[in-house]
Design goal:
Blueprint (H helix, E strand, L loop, with lengths): L4 E6 L6 E10 L2 E11 L2 H9 L7 H27 L6 E6 L2 E6 L6 E5 L2 H8 L3 E3 L2 H6 L9 H7 L7 E6 L2 E7 L5 E8 L2 H11 L8 H4 L5 H8 L2 H4 L13 H5 L8 H20 L6 E5 L6 H10 L4 E4 L10 H14 L7 H4 L9 E3 L2
Parallel strand pairs: 1-4, 4-7, 8-11, 11-12
Antiparallel strand pairs: 1-2, 2-3, 5-6, 7-13, 8-9, 9-10
Amino acid sequence: MTQPYFIGLMSGTSADGIDAVVISTEGNQSELVGSHHRPMPAPLRDEILAFRQSGWDELHRLATLDVQLAEEYAVAVSTLLKATQLEAATVAAIGCHGQTLRHHPEGNTPFTLQIGDPNRLAELTGITVVSDFRRRDMAAGGQGAPLVPAFHRARLVSEGTSTAVVNIGGIANISLVTAGGDVTGWDTGPGNTLMDAWIGKHQGEPFDRDGEWAASGAVIAPLLGALLQDPYFSTHPPKSTGPEYFHLDWLATHLSGAEAPADVQCTLAELTVESLALALAQQPLDVVRVCGGGAHNAWLMQRLTDRLGGTAVTTTEAIDVDPEWVEAWAFAWLAQQTLAGQPSNVPAVTGAGGPRVLGGIFPA
C-alpha cells in the first residue's frame, strides 16, 4: 500500500502540550493535511519542568516519564488520525522529536536527552517511528540543534529572497537563508521560557496572552543590560541552549527583589527581542518570518517590528503556513528524510563534521 503521509510530533520546552500534524508528501514537497494539540496533563508537565535542575531518584522518575510520554504521544496520534479520517496503514512514519529534559552541547562529554519511548509509541500506534534526531549530529561534533533550518529552507523560503525564519518557542532560534540558498542558524537565547516562568510564579498563568502583562510594565534598563552581559549572547555560533540554562534561578541572580513584577516581565520580553535583533542586525534581509508560540504574542511581534526598523516582519501565515505547526511539521519532514536515507542536518548551523542521516528507526 502506498504510504503518502507522515506524522510529526513536537512537545517543546514549555511542555504545555503535544503538537501533532499529518502531512502529505510528493517528492520533496509536503502539505499540511491536519493538526491537533493535546494539552500536557498537569502532573506530567510538573515532572518535566522539575527535570530542569537535578533532583531525587532521577533514574526511576526518568524511566517512568519516558513511558508516560509515549502513551500521551500515542493518544495524540490516535486523535489526529480520527480527525483526518486516515488509517494508520497509510502513514509511512511518525517523526517524534521527544521531550528534551537536558541539553548540554559543550564540554568534554556533550550530551542531549529527549524522552518519549519510540518502541512503545510504535507498538501503540502500529506506525514506524523515527526519533532521537539530535544525538547523531552531536556525535559528529555538532550542537545537535537547531535541526529545523533545513526544513525552513525547503518549505518556508522563496527562491531568491534573503529570509530569516525566527522560531520563538521556549527558546528562540533563527534560520538565515541567503538569496542563493545558503543557510546558517543558531539558538539566540530565551524565547518564551523566562516570560512563561515569571508569569506562572506571579500570576499562576501558563503564558502572557498577547503580551498584555509585559505591555503594562516598563523596561528596567539596568536589568536588561545585565542580562545581556551573559556570555551566551556574545558567543559565536554554532551554539544552542535550553531552559536548563535560562531559568528563574538564572534570572534571580540579577534581581534585587525590589522590582515591580510587571516591569520584570516587560524586561524579559525586551530581552527576547533584543537578543534576536542583535543576531539579525548584520544580516542583509528581505523579510523576517516568525513562527512558534511567540508569533501569537502581539506585544512581542510589535516590539520586534519596531526594533528591526525597515525590515518586513511577518508570521509564516503570510505564506499559508500556520506558525503554530511549523516545528511538528519539521519533524514529519525530518522523518521523511531519514527513511529516504537523506542527510538533514546543516553542518554550517550545528558545527557537525559533515552531513548526517539523523534519527533512529523503530519499525511498526
